[in-house]
Design goal:
The chain has 457 residues and is an alpha+beta fold. The chain folds into three domains: 30-138, Alpha-Beta Plaits (2-Layer Sandwich); 178-273, Chitinase A, domain 3 (Roll); 285-454, Trigger factor, domain 2 (Orthogonal Bundle). It is built from eleven helices and eleven strands.
């Protein structure tokens, strides 16, 4: 007896109606659908004898091509002999083939659109008998939207102060300041940049990533593990130091996390930043400005543009959040699982290479637990925006899709044609159409929202 955990390789994003159909229309399937809950449908499917026998015939023909049986030439082994030899082991293979071949048609016949991989409960079929199986299918629940106009929204007030502009200027001074070597014997202090060689050991053994040569380190920056920089303070060029420290418990490299380490450190140079004067010449040296006031104006505008964008995003989130709060519905676990896995795959792709497998696995498992509420929220938001788009009868024209594909291709350093080829033309266009409809739906909600400007605390 197969159980519900078996998914027969189905991908809920795939069009089941085309799965392994071999040209059959499956109009003779028996399908009885029932509602288990607002998010779950049960399908009881009966595959007729003719289809079962066809699957067995196909399987035995494949076996006959390659079977080597004493006394028979290849391809000439009688069916009865093959049945005695392989019949007992064919059941589950035929079961998978029949489910893969018929599930899409059964879903279409019942008018059920899965949001996650259906679970199958089946007993392996037998020749000359109908094949019965059950499918539990998670679906989107009905969504009763509230009034869409006048949703509350909160937009942070955008302010840029003179102090913030001055801090940006100071940061520019620091980043453009030349490094001047201190006189011999100068003791390194916070703010100095030291050039060091170091070798670290745990339990007397050097470890990967624990050594470096000609490394520039600004003391007080917190770049190195806690306790390291403090023990270099006071050293002069040419000095050697022994630094004793402990790696944090959740350090990225599991083999040293939480362990005591000893570093042999040689200080090669001690340098200071020589800050340039904050005047028109400094602005000109940056290459784009004639005066310091022009530089200040640019900093002000850049900060304001960035905060305007942040404020617009915050407003959109708040309006969508108001819709979520006013529209309760159940999200099936499989839909949350699928979104969570997409998040995890993207995160793993973005991590730097070379992370030990055990460290990566532990991090992914932590994320799996921490991110589940956010994944469910993302599903809820997408489905709500889809419902709004349906209610508003929003449509995306082909020109808008083509423009978005061009932008995506440019960002990825490829051509629209190659991007279409890599992703698949229909899949790419369908995904973009969904995204643009959701953006338009949210545009509508924001345009009709009751917006409050508020200080961002």
């Amino acid at each position: 007896m197969s159980d519900h955990s078996r998914d027969h390789g189905h991908d809920h994003a795939h069009d089941h109606s085309d799965d392994h159909s071999h040209g059959h229309d499956h109009s003779d399937l028996g399908v009885v659908a029932s509602e288990e809950s607002s998010t779950l449908r049960r399908l009881e499917v009966t595959v007729p004898v003719a289809s079962v026998n066809h699957a067995y015939d196909h399987a035995y023909r494949d076996i006959a091509k390659n079977a080597r049986v004493k006394g028979f030439r290849p391809g000439k082994v009688p069916r009865a002999v093959l049945e005695r030899m392989f019949g007992a082991s064919l059941g589950e293979e035929i079961e998978r083939a029949l489910v893969n071949e018929t599930l899409g048609a059964a879903l279409a016949q019942a008018g059920v659109e899965p949001v996650a991989t259906p679970s199958i409960d089946a007993t392996p079929p037998q020749a000359n008998q109908p094949f019965h199986y059950k499918a539990l299918v998670e679906v989107r629940p009905p969504i009763a939207l509230p009034a869409l106009e006048g949703l509350p929204g909160r937009r942070p007030i955008v302010l840029v102060t003179d102090d913030e502009i001055e801090r940006e200027l100071e940061d520019l001074r620091r980043r453009n300041a030349p490094l001047i070597e201190e006189p011999a014997g100068t003791a390194a202090a916070n703010g100095h940049i030291v050039t060091i060689d170091f070798v670290g050991r745990v339990d007397g053994v050097a470890f990967e990533g624990g050594s470096g040569r000609d490394v520039e380190l600004e003391l007080g920056s917190g770049r190195f593990i806690p306790g390291f920089e403090e023990q270099v303070i006071g050293a002069a060029a040419g000095d050697d130091r022994v630094v004793n420290t402990t790696f944090p418990e959740h350090y990225g490299a599991a083999e040293v996390a939480g362990k005591d380490a000893v570093f042999q450190v040689h200080v090669a140079e001690v340098k200071r930043r020589e800050l340039p004067a904050l005047d028109d010449e400094f602005a000109k040296d940056l290459g784009e400005f004639d005066t310091l006031d022009a530089l200040r104006d640019r900093i002000h505008q850049d900060l304001r543009d960035s905060r305007d964008q942040t404020a617009r995003a915050a407003l959109r989130r708040s309006v969508l959040g108001a819709l979520v709060e006013r529209t309760p519905f159940a999200v099936p676990p499989g839909a949350t699982d699928a979104q969570l896995e997409r998040r995890l795959r993207l995160a793993v792709q973005q991590l730097h290479e070379g992370i030990p497998h055990d460290v990566l696995h532990a991090q992914v498992e932590r994320w799996r637990e921490e991110w589940r509420p956010a994944a469910e929220r993302e599903v809820r938001e997408r489905w709500l925006l889809d419902a709004v788009a349906d209610t508003r009868e929003l449509a995306i024209d082909e020109a808008a899709i083509a423009e978005q594909i061009e932008r995506m291709a440019s960002a990825q350093g490829t051509t629209p044609a190659r991007l279409r080829e890599q992703v698949g033309d229909e899949l790419l266009e369908a995904s973009i159409r969904e995204d643009l409809r959701r953006e338009q739906a949210l545009d509508f909600l924001v345009s009709t929202a009751k917006v409050e400007d508020a200080a961002d605390t």
